[in-house]
Write a structure and sequence with these properties.
The protein is an alpha/beta fold. Helix content is 41%, strand content 19%.
Length: 411
């Protein structure tokens, strides 16, 4: 990626968490490029205060007008998470794409801030081995084709954690005690999920230590009594819980609490990264797991058969696009238009039982239902369906099978 030279980059927008790594990147940018740094910190529901990032940036010499801190939780769920859940997207049949779906929003806001401030470049803290570097940079380029991108982990000469700590101490960057040793694993979190990778999780044959799980109780420790809830839907999006209307972020946060308490949403998987390697990750998506099952139950009542099957057939492609970082690509937008069209009548309520890691659908009802009791009953169906018609239907569908077998017998 073109990073430019230290002489022609004057101002950089950095995706800044306030943690040690991005604080080191901040000082490295100033030292390497001589550039003015603008920090951008997004609250996507990661579960920790983000205001300390302001104090940290000020401590490191960033001017107050160059510090951007934004609460994007509602934007995140409404404009990114919910559209993705309309697709029932699962990468490789398991992963609910919690990290992947957060990157487009961060990229978008970085580019918008770069335009507003006249910045020459944007910078992220993703490593050169992971998927996030791809997701961030595809987003940057899709929105601002000529933007300069700085990826420190691909550029700097640091070889070890000790090198990073030494640089931090040299530049008076506070180093918490728990950061001085090797981190047992890395964590990424937002309102949809948390993911843990690396170190103690690198052997895929070793069970994750219990302390890895931060968002859910162990299923065996969950209550012995089931929790029953009702989720309301409108045009494919969840809009209420137990009859109470909620904003997108509030609704997902509420589902997270319910899923946490009932041990729901743990996934231990080995996935295929876009950059070519396999990696083992432990993900917790409590609210998203409930939402997925509820949405599919609502669709089962309201979607036409072939429309539902077509939608299911494109889901893996949609999920792959999100995973690989192509949120702003025309093919993802085309698929989204098809998916959103399918959701026009996905409306009603789904009743669920949450119990020891399980989400059990126990009821569903919709004013837009395609379920017709008169068609499925074994009793007198008042002429709605003539069972004798099935004979011709079956013979027509069997025609090619009979023809094939007659040919085989002749041979």
């Amino acid at each position: 990626m073109a990073a430019g030279t230290s002489s022609d980059i004057k101002k950089v927008v950095l995706a800044y968490s306030g943690g040690l790594d991005t604080s080191i990147i901040l000082k490295w940018l100033e030292e390497t490029y001589g550039a003015e740094v603008i920090t951008f910190t997004a609250d996507l529901g990661q579960g920790e205060e983000i205001e300390p990032a302001r104090e940290k940036a000020e401590l490191l010499g960033i001017k107050q007008e160059n510090i951007y801190i934004e609460d994007l939780r509602e934007d995140f769920v409404r404009d990114y998470v919910f559209p993705m859940f309309r697709a029932n997207a699962l990468y490789e049949g398991v992963y609910l794409l919690g990290t992947s779906i957060a990157r487009p929003l961060i990229s978008k806001r970085q580019i918008e801030i770069a335009r507003a401030t006249g910045a020459d470049a944007v910078c992220h803290g993703a490593t050169g081995k992971g998927n996030d570097q791809v997701r961030f940079e595809l987003g940057y380029y899709a929105l601002e084709p000529s933007i300069r991108i700085i990826s420190p982990w691909r550029e700097w000469d640091f070889k070890s954690r000790e090198d990073l700590i030494a640089f931090a101490e040299q530049h008076q960057i506070p180093v918490p005690k728990d950061k001085r040793g090797e981190a047992p694993f890395s964590v990424d979190a937002n309102l949809l999920h948390s993911s843990s990778e690396g170190k103690v999780l690198e052997d895929p044959n070793e069970e994750p230590p219990s302390y890895v799980y931060m968002r859910t109780v162990a299923p065996e420790d969950a209550p012995d009594k089931a929790t029953v809830i009702t989720i309301g839907f409108k045009k494919g999006d969840a809009v209420s819980i137990n009859g109470t209307p909620m904003s997108p972020a509030t609704l997902l946060e509420t589902l997270n609490d319910l899923g946490r308490d009932n041990g729901i949403g743990r996934v231990d998987l080995v996935e295929n990264r876009y950059v070519g390697m396999k990696s083992r990750g432990v993900y917790e998506t409590p609210g998203g797991t409930i939402l997925l099952d509820a949405h599919r139950a609502m669709e089962s009542l309201t979607l036409d058969r072939d429309a539902a099957h077509l939608k299911d057939s494109i889901m893996p492609r949609y999920a792959e696009l999100v995973y690989n970082g192509f949120w702003f690509a025309p093919e993802r937008e085309m698929l989204q238009a098809l998916i959103d069209k399918s959701q026009e009548h996905v409306e009603g309520e789904v009743r669920l039982k949450l119990y020891k890691g399980n989400v059990i659908v126990i009821g569903r009802a919709s004013p837009r239902s395609l379920y017709d009791p008169e068609l499925v009953t074994f009793e007198d169906d008042k002429g709605a369906y003539d069972q004798k018609d099935a004979e011709g239907f079956i013979r027509l569908n069997a025609l090619r099978l009979r023809t094939l077998e007659m040919r085989n017998r002749r041979s």
